[in-house]
Amino acid sequence: MLKVAAARHTIGAPVDFAAFAARQASLLQAAADAGTQLAVLPEYLSLELGATLPVRERADLHASLAALQPLHRDWLALYARLARDLRMHIVAGSFLLAVGPERYRNRCYWFAPDGCHGWQDKLQLTGFEKQAGVIERGDALKVFECDDVRVGVSVCYDIEFPLPVRAQCEAGARVIAVPSCTDTEAGATRVRVGGLARALENRCFVAQAVTAGDAPWSPALDTNTGDAAIYAPMDVGLPADGVLARAGEGQDWAIATLGLAALDASRAVAQVANDRDWNGQLAPAVQRARLDTLEPLHSGDG
């Protein structure tokens, strides 16, 4: 069993890093009090710190990214401390980290209760990120250990692509954490459908965290939509709609206990087995489609 919490994080406007840290500590304490072992925070969470910058600087994406870099060490120290103190694994949203002159990675950090950390960079860039001109895609795919359960991280748009998530599941991931940030209902739907599809295909759990509310002072966090949710395959003994838990307006966390052993046992009575049948779509006969020629029906044809 693994208890997971996915945040519906309403964007705030902290006056300084200390105020941001205090709110994070309060939110994560609430998750820990509920028995959470793995907490997932949303993509672009670090950009909330843009509220601490001068008005002109925070309104300029490039300037704000550069100005936030000195806070990176404090960011790492904050979540490492919270993970240790709360004895919890934390997927701390994402920090747009400078990796070269005017080059940034959308980096999602993983913090463990022993104080160690790792990261997964976003692999696929959205139109907004491409247009920014300074954000580059990641080049490595990872999984992490969480209390003997392997977990992959798929940052927002990445969950809409089946093959990387499949690779994480083939590396042993049973849960996929999805830090996300979407500004339209269409975007929220795409990430939700992607999460449900990946849960179905791989017979795994998916935990999606989201940003919520408006931040007109930020070019990246201006509008935020969607609900946090935890998804499961749609099959016997599991929710018919694939939703184990959901957090909407006024709620901070979607929380669910993932019964991994029960999920494995349910294979015996499963109506479908997409994960085991995956290789069927790799057969040479269906690797490529061809235009078929229609033939007239002759008398005597049955």
TrEMBL record:
Keywords: Hydrolase. Residues 2-260 form the CN hydrolase domain. InterPro entries: C-N_Hydrolase, C-N_Hydrolase_sf, UPF0012_CS. The keyword Hydrolase applies. GO terms for molecular function: hydrolase activity. Belongs to the carbon-nitrogen hydrolase superfamily. NIT1/NIT2 family. This is Carbon-nitrogen hydrolase family protein.
